Amino acid sequence: MFFTNHLLAVNKDYQWYFKLYCSKQQLSNPIFVRGWVQRIPLKPELASLLKSATTPRQRIAIYAEKGIWYSALSELAELRLAETKNPIFANDWANLLQYIGLADFASKPIVGEVTEVK
Fold it and tell me: Tell me: the pLDDT tens digits for 85-115?
């Protein structure tokens, strides 16, 4: 899921969910997963590190190093979507997913941006 961070209020919990129907008629029960996300304030030292980053890859590495997985994954996914044939981004994606225990998903396609349902 990709949401623009400025749409989320700081320190507020947001619930997300994803339903997948395995038939066109939606007669069967969907596969359902949900979770929570919270936007936290950016600490001054992290803001300084991010400001000093000269490339998106450096910024993604900073997020990953600090355990800010949402930002690391979403920014890297955006790079992969913009340059689907770039082997550097594919390798970075595989390495990041392996690091967080999701290596099985590295070869799966990214289908695009998910938008907020209102």
Answer: 999 999 999 999 999 898 998 888 877 655 5
What confidence score (pLDDT) does residue 50 get? 94
More confident residue, 55 or 26: 55
Residue 86, both tokens: 């770039």
Tell me the β-bridge partners of 37.
Answer: 14
| Structure tokens, 15 | 């619930």
CA distance 43 to 68: 12
Residue 112, by phi and psi: left (phi above 0), alpha (psi -120 to 50) or beta?
A: left
Sign of CA dihedral 67, 81, 112, 12: positive
Three-class DSSP category at 34: strand
